Structures are given as structure tokens and as C-alpha cells.
Amino acid sequence: MKNLVDRIIQDLGEDKPIKGILLKAQIVASKLNNNDFKTWIENEQNGYPDASNLPDYRVLNAIVKADLSIPFSGYVRNYTIPAGIYDDPIIEECICKVRITHSLQEIETIYENKKGGNVSTNLPAMAYTEVNKYVSGNVEQLKQEFSVASLIHIVDIFKSKLLSFFLDIEKEMNVGINFSKIEEQQDKITQIMNTYYINSAIANTGAGSVSAGDIRDNTSLQIISDSEQKEKFLSLVSQLKEEANSLNNSDLTETIDLITEECNKPSWAKRTLRVALNAVQGIATGIAANQLTPIVTNALALL
């Protein structure tokens, strides 16, 4: 496991794409067998199921914009609603903070497609009632706006926390902690997690879903359903297994096992399979890339 931890530390230091880092971290999480760490990695990899238990670095400040219908005056678009006008701090929190539940890979994709500017999220219905108290006219649409730069900062903070966590894990390994007896080390792992506030979360007071043009396309889950396509893909996975077995590399074998696990599900998520295949290629670099690269390339072409 130490070699894999070292590789993750190197990837984080070189600012490698998050998808490969997360897959390696998933392998480590399965070996550490710590529920808190495993849940954290799974949520960052797949997205949080709801906004009720988000880490604080996923809560961003937002500018509130409203479209107003004003009697006898017409229609006003993108009117900025100032912060700090609400009597109830919970209402203030709900309206002026945005909670990001998307996976880290989806966040990176949004950033790569937009680079700059703002994205938006719709506010829940209760916010319309509150904002109506402070404006002339009726609120027709209400949204939160925040910068793409603040969105990608979530990825940066995650990388920083993960790096700190693995540096401490590596330190414990070097001073003689026996991580092969993992059940005896759970308190130590949890202590390291708490040191970096990985478990810190905030109460949910309402949230919307990010909805800006191309973002809708990026966040939709693509599924392989064609039986012929599945058959071809499984054949390539079998070839990957055969090559991995001949290399006797545990990291490579475990990553391919993750692909097999996805293929055992009723529906196969293309995004998950792409991440795993790219990780296979990354792990194989310098080992036997020429043997595995054509297989990985053919598999990716099916997704």
C-alpha cells in the first residue's frame, strides 16, 4: 500500500487530474477499511446524495439575482438582492450560501468547459416568499450566482486535505505503524482525518441544483445499455485481466476489479468506466504500457 500512497502524493504534488487521483484513493480506502475515509472518497468521487451533510469547503458565497414583475412599471431582470437583510440567520444562510453536491470530476469538467464567468443555481420556493418581503413587486425567478473560480477551489481544497492526510499516513508507516494489521489502526486513521477537518459538515437549510447551460449536459449520467456494446467491452476487460495477471501488479489488478464490479451492475456508468480505464493506463505507465494501451484505447472508444 505504501507504493500506492507515494504515487498519490506524487500525483497531488504534480497537480494531476482528479479522476486518476480519486480512483487510486478509492483503492487505498478499501485497504484502510475506515468507514469515514471510505465515505468521504465515495462522496467526492460520485457526488453527495443530498446537501444535508456537506463538508464546509463545499459551501460557497453567492450573489442572489431576481427577476421582478413590478405593477405599472414592467419587468426587471437580474436585480441584485443584497445580503444581510434577513432577520433570521437560517434564512440568510439558505439564500446567500450555495451548496455544491456534484462530484469533483464534474466540477473539473464544468471548469474546463467554461474557464471563467459565473454559474447559477435555482433557489427553493420558500426563498421567493422571503425575498418578496424586501422588494417592490413580485419575484418571478430567483437564483444564486457564483464564479467558476470559486467552484474549482473546491477541488483545490480537497487535494490539499487529501495530500495532508496521505503525508501523515506515510509518516506513520515510516515510523513503524503496521498498516497490515489495519483493524488495530482505525483510531489512528480517524484521528488523522479529524486533524484536517475532513468530517466537518454543515446543516442543510435548502439547496438547488447547478443549472447553467452546458452544466446540465455534464452532470447527466450516461449509461451503456446496448447488449452488443457490452459484449465487446467485456471482451476487452478480459484481455486487460489477462495482461494484469501476467504482470503481477496488485494496484493494476485491483483497478481492473473495479471495472468488473461496475460491469456486474444492471446499468454501467460510462463516466465511472472512463475514470477506471484512465487509471489503468496511468498505473501501467512504465510497467507495460505498450501491452495495455491498445486495449484501453479500444475500450474507451466504446464509451
TrEMBL record:
Domain of life (superkingdom): Bacteria
Protein name from the UniProt record: Uncharacterized protein
